[in-house]
Amino acid sequence: MDTTIAAIATPLAMGGVGMIRISGPESYEIAGKVFSPVSGKDVRQQKGYTALFGHIHDRGRTVDEAVALFFRAPHSYTGEDVVELSCHGGVAVLREVLRCVLDAGAVMAGPGEFSKRAVLGGKMTLTQAEGVMELISAKTRQGVAAALSAMDGRLYRTTSAIKQSLLEVAAQMAAYVDYPDEDIPDLEGQVLGKTLGLAEDRLAALLDSFDTGKMLQQGIETAIVGRPNVGKSTLMNLLAGCDKSIVTQIPGTTRDVVEEVVELGEVVLRLADTAGLRETDDPVERIGVERSVQKLDRAALILALFDYSTPLAGEDWELLEKIAGRPAVVVVNKTDLPCAIDLDELREKVPQVVLMQASSGQGLEELQQAIYTATALGHLDMDSGVLVGERQRQSAVQALAAVRGARQALQMGMTYDAVAVDIDAAVEALSELTGESASQQVIDTVFANFCVGK
Ligand code: GDP
Ligand code: ZN
């Protein structure tokens, strides 16, 4: 970390302002070479948390006007001396200014290198850095909230608390093993089991939060299924009509004819009217059916439609079998028509049954509520922090497996030494999660996924 790094920190696009961030021991020196404040002040003597207006120049030629912001170590994002040059936001001008800064002695920053320095310099934890990345890539309001719970340290505190409880169990067992004759309060296997059980529950809840966080971040992949003519397209249009603007707000949305991204209350649904494809003629139909099966398998939420005015048919039963045990809402449509369906039978199969009239929108609120319940969004506890990223999930999975192993060992009456092996493994996995004992390779991998300039 004795090099001074620089990168364009704002997106490379046309904009009012663009910013070059410089971090490292030579930041002030390098800024002094390329930036001249109109006040004539000496940049190298500048205090932290100050700003100067001036010009960027390249061997006597003015490149741009700029405002320079100064941060003194350790009071900066990276914890190092940092200078941020805010210039005009054109692609060419930003590249030009960056080139000047590199010519003056800075090294091009790698992906996420500023955040990596912040972690290595103790300014934030690995989980917080991952929260930063998640925040940048969040596309929904709820995704932002989940990212913040990692970024502001809630996730770190929860993980640390679990780890602490495991360390206490380990310490008690070690004391018992080492000094069996001393006056150590009786080690009740039950008490240990209880602590382990609590750790297990908290880890399981964290893992749940991963799936939920992902749903919130990207929108819930939702499949609308049901036999032809039950009203799938009508429901799709109704939902899409709730807030069409979201479609343009989320970049990279597949504007497939049968996919829509809609906001329903607090949640974002990525809707696929799968069986819309089924209704087309032959060769396409086969592909369509395959595609809807895939969609159905992959969906995080299934909206299964049935016709209120028609008795359940063979295809309906097949569908009910398929969605059993999955996060699903049964929508019984066309309630304006006379009833011919056995609702009790449906309710036996799937807990969430909503009656509605897709053509008029009646029942939409109930549908929204049922979606919350089916996806467990209603139970999401962001106060404990939300796991973000596959790396964190992997560590949590390992920790959970180890805690379960420890509990089993304890129940089977194995020696405390044997139980301790599993507890150690759990503690190790949690330390990796928070980054306290993450290897250099893990850290490098995490930051390789960051964008340059963050
Ligand atoms: P899909 O084949 O499942 O996509 O069904 P559609 O959405 O194309 O609807 C089939 C027919 O049912 C259309 O004529 C709709 O107007 C009608 N429909 C949809 N929802 C309702 C409803 O709530 N009540 C009544 N009476 N008709 C509906
Ligand atoms: Zn349709």
Automatic annotation (TrEMBL):
K(+) binds at N229, T248, I250, T253. GTP binds at residues 229-234, 248-254, 273-276. GO terms for molecular function: GTP binding; GTPase activity; metal ion binding. Its main location: cytoplasm. Mg(2+) binds at S233, T254. Residues 219-376 form the TrmE-type G domain. The keyword Ribonucleoprotein does not apply. GO terms for cellular component: cytosol. The keyword tRNA-binding does not apply. Keywords: Cytoplasm, GTP-binding, Hydrolase, Magnesium, Metal-binding, Nucleotide-binding, Potassium, tRNA processing. Homodimer. Heterotetramer of two MnmE and two MnmG subunits. Exhibits a very high intrinsic GTPase hydrolysis rate. Involved in the addition of a carboxymethylaminomethyl (cmnm) group at the wobble position (U34) of certain tRNAs, forming tRNA-cmnm(5)s(2)U34. This is tRNA modification GTPase MnmE. It comes from Neobittarella massiliensis. The gene is mnmE.
